[in-house]
Amino acid sequence: MPKKNILYAQSGGVTAVINATASGVISAARNQSELGKVYAARNGIIGALREELIDTSVLSNEVIAGLKYTPSGAFGSCRYKLKGIQENREEYERLISVFKAHNIGYFFYNGGGDSQDTAHKVSQLSQEMGFPITCIGIPKTVDNDLPFTDNCPGFGSVAKYVAISTLEASLDVASMCESSTKVFILEVMGRHAGWIAAASALAQKRSGGAPHIILFPEVIFDEEKFLDEVNKAVKQHGYCVIVASEGAKYADGQFLAQMGSKDAFGHVQLGGVAPMLANLIKSKLKLKYHWAVADYLQRAARHISSHTDVEHAFALGEAAVKLALENKNAVMPYIKRDSSSPYRWHIESVELSKVANVERTVPPEYISENGFGITEACREYLAPLIEGESYPSYQNGLPLYVRPTFTMLEKKLEQEFVIR
Amino acid sequence: MPKKNILYAQSGGVTAVINATASGVISAARNQSELGKVYAARNGIIGALREELIDTSVLSNEVIAGLKYTPSGAFGSCRYKLKGIQENREEYERLISVFKAHNIGYFFYNGGGDSQDTAHKVSQLSQEMGFPITCIGIPKTVDNDLPFTDNCPGFGSVAKYVAISTLEASLDVASMCESSTKVFILEVMGRHAGWIAAASALAQKRSGGAPHIILFPEVIFDEEKFLDEVNKAVKQHGYCVIVASEGAKYADGQFLAQMGSKDAFGHVQLGGVAPMLANLIKSKLKLKYHWAVADYLQRAARHISSHTDVEHAFALGEAAVKLALENKNAVMPYIKRDSSSPYRWHIESVELSKVANVERTVPPEYISENGFGITEACREYLAPLIEGESYPSYQNGLPLYVRPTFTMLEKKLEQEFVIR
After folding, report:
1. What positions are marked as the site Important for catalytic activity (chains A, B) (predicted)?
2. Contacts of residue B171 in chain A, CB cutoff 8 Å?
3. B164 and A398 in contact by Cβ < 8 A?
4. Residues of chain A with CATH 3.40.50.450
C-alpha cells in the first residue's frame, strides 16, 4: 500500500507566522520515510472541497525555509465554516472523497477555534464512513483566544508590533503635545478578546507610561469614566495615548464601531472605533487628536515578528508531523509554559473535542482595577511572547518574502464541487 | 570673548530620523574647539521664545549616539509659525534677546518649508538689530516637498515603512480574497505632495503587482474612473490594493476627507480618506473591504527606518556644523544626488531665500498615464531612498530608544514670554 499523504490547510485570518507552521510541517514530513507527500489545499478548506490541491514536494528546500520568514497564507486561506454534519453532510462526504482519491491519511487544519471544530468533525465522520483520517488541528490566531495553549501562534508577533508601534507613536505625541496633538488613538484587532490591546501596555516602561488608556472588549465602555481618564492623562502628562480594541462595547453589547456588515462566519465586521472615539473627544473635550487603525498591517508585519512566536509556530508544525507518526487522532498540539522568567516551554497535545468552541478572553485578574490597564500578572504573561527579533532577509530595501509557484495535483474526481 | 554657542531647534511634525540630525549636530560640534556648547530649544521655537533651553553638553556620548536610533523629537518640537516681521516684530526681538542672553551665535532650525522661512527671517532681523546670528536651516519633512534637496530626511524611512506595509498587507489580502476581503485601502500621509503614496509602488515587484491603485493629491479624484479601476483589478487579480494619500482631492479642491479642523499653521487637518473610499466601494461595488490608517505609526517607525535616510539625516546635522564654522549664513545644507544606481550623493548648500515657501510636489512625469501609478523615472528616483536597514538595539523585545533627561539653562531674562 502506498504511503499515506498529508493534506495541510490554512484557515481563517492569516498571520505573520502561519507560513512558519507550514514550513515546520513540510520540512519535518520530508524527512520521514513512513509518510507520503505533503499536499496543501488551495485557499484552505475551499480548495479541499474543490479538489484544488498543491503538491509541495516539488518546492525547493530554500522555498520551504523561506516560508518561515514570509507573512500571509502562502497557499491561500479562507473564511468558510463547514456547517454541522446534520445540516450539510454532503460537504463532509465530499472531503472524504477527495481524501480517498488522493490517498490522504492525515489532515492538518491550521486555524482558530472554528477550524479545530471542523477538524474534529472530519475525524468523526471519516471513521463513520470507514476511511479513517488522522486529523490534527494546529493552533493559529492573532486573537490568542484558544484554550489550553499558553498562547496562539500569530499573537506574539502582533503583540510585538502593537507594543512597538504604541511606543513609537507615544514618543511622537510626547514631542508634539505642547502645541499640537494631545490625544492619540490606536485601534487594534481583537473582536471578543482584548489580548492584542493588552500587549500595548508592554510599551509603558519604555515610553514613560503610555498607553494611558486601554479599551478591552472584556470591560464595558463607560463614556464618562473614559473622558475623565483622558482629561486626567492630559493634565498629568500633557498628552494621552489610547489603545482601543475593535471589540470595545457598550453595556448593551453594542460595539462602539458597529458597521452592520457580517463576514462569512456570521461575525459582525468591525472597524472604526478610533474615529468614533476621536469624534467623542473632539466634541466633549475639544482636544486636538490623531488616530490610526492598524488593521491588516498588524497581523502581516513579518518584518518585526517576535522570534518566540516564530519558533512556536514552526515547532507546532513539526509537532503535528510527530503526532501523525504516532497515529494520535483528533488532537491539537499546544504550547505549555514551564516558566516565565526565563521563558521555558514545551509542546503537549489535547483532544480536539476539548478545544472546539471554547473562547479564552482576558481574565479579570489580568485587567487593572480601573479597567484601563493590565496587572503585573498579565505583564508577566505577555512579556516573553514578544522576545527576540526574527528579521527576514532584505534586497533593495524590501524583505525577501517567498511567493511559491503552485504545482496543482491532477483532479481525479468526476464531479466538480460548487461552494455555495 | 567666550566662544559662541549653538541653538538647535526641532520644528513641525517629527520623524523617525530627526533625532539622527540632532545626533549629527551635537557630536560634530563637540569636537570643535572654536564652538561653544550646543543648546536645544525645549519644544522647538516655543522654547526659544520662552527661554527654555536644554544644555546638551551634559548628555553622555552614549545618549547622543542613541539619538541616531530614536524616533520622535527628543527635545520636543512644535507647530508654531512666527508671523511676518511686520505683523509681529516682538517675537523676533524676543528671540534675539534670548540669543544675546545666552551668547548664541548660531541658530540651527531643523524643519520643513515654514521653518526655513523662519530661519531666513531671523537671520535678516538679527543683522538689522546689530547682533548677527548665523542661521542655518536643516531640512526635515516626511512630505519630501522641499526644493533643491534630492529628498528630505524622514521621507526615506516613511517610504520604506509604507512600501513594506503595502507588501505585507497585499500578501495578506491575496491569501484571503477567494472568500473574504477583496479590497484593501491604506491611507498614508502627504497633504499636498503624493511622495509617500508613490513610495508604496516600490512593493509592486515583490507583491506581484499591488498596490493596484495609488491616489495622489496631484491627480484630481474621478469617482467613476476610480471605481472602474477597482473593478478591473478585482477581476484580473481577485483583489485590489489601494494606497490613498490623505491629500487626495476632488476637482473643486475639496479634500476627500475634509474634517473641518485646522492645525496651528492654519492647514486643514486631514484623516479619513480610507473609510470614505471604503464606504464608496461598499455602496457602489458591494465588495468586501478592509482599511487601515497608518497616521503617526508611519513617521515614527524607527524600527524599520531606511539606512540611507538615517545617514542623510546624520550627515546634514554634521554639515550644519561645518557651515557654521565657515560662517555661511542663511543657508540650508541639502542632499545632491550624483547617481541613482549605484546611489551616490554628497552635500551642498543653498541660500534660504531660495528655499522658503517653495513646495515640490510629484511632477507629472513621475505619475503614470492613467494617474493611478508611477513611472519608471519615479521608481528610479525612489528606489535608493529605502535602501538598507538601520535596526535599533532591543531589550525585552522592545527597541532601546533613548529619552534624555533635560538639564535646563538658568533663565537670564527678567520677562517671561507668553505664547499667544
Report:
1. 140
2. 70-72, 300, 401, 403
3. yes
4. 5-141+149-153+303-358+388-399
Residues B199-231 have pLDDT tens digits of 999 999 999 999 999 999 999 999 999 999 999
| Alpha helices, H only, B31-139 | 45-50, 61-67, 89-101, 113-128
pLDDT of residue A360: 96
Ligand-binding site membership of B82 (annotated): no
Q: Using omega within 30 degrees of 0 as the cis cutoff, is the peptide bond preceding B2 cis? A: no
Tell which residue, B119, B124, B121, has the closest CA to residue B135. Answer: B119
Domain with CATH 3.40.50.450 in chain B: 5-141+304-358+387-399
Selected residue of B178, B239, B308, B309 to mutate for chain A interface (largest A Cβ count, 10 A): B178
| pLDDT tens by residue, B130-185 | 999 999 999 999 999 999 999 999 999 999 999 999 999 999 999 999 999 999 99
Q: Are strands B331-340 and B343-351 parallel, antiparallel or unpaired?
A: antiparallel
Average pLDDT per block of 10 residues along chain A, 420 residues long = 93 97 98 96 97 98 98 96 87 95 98 92 92 96 97 98 98 96 97 96 96 98 98 98 96 79 48 86 94 97 98 98 97 98 97 90 98 98 98 98 97 89
Return residue ranges of chain A for CATH 3.40.50.460: 155-300
In this complex, do B179 and A10 lie within 8 Å of one another by their Cβ atoms? Answer: no
- Of A74, A387, A396, nearest to B396 by CB-CB distance is A387
Q: Are B136 and B109 in contact (CB under 8 A)?
A: yes
Each residue's pLDDT tens digit, B39-54: 999 999 999 999 999 9
Structural fold of domain A5-141+149-153+303-358+388-399? Rossmann fold (3.40.50)
Q: Which of A169, A275, A391 sits opposite B296 (nearest CB)?
A: A169
Cβ–Cβ below 8 Å for A172 and B72: yes
SS3 A59: coil
Which residues have a Cβ under 8 Å from the Cβ of B326 and sit 6 or more positions away? none
Choices 2.170.270.10, 3.40.50.460, 3.90.1210.10, 3.40.640.10: CATH for A155-300: 3.40.50.460
- Report the CATH number of the B155-302 domain: 3.40.50.460
Residue A295, all three cell numbers: 488593521
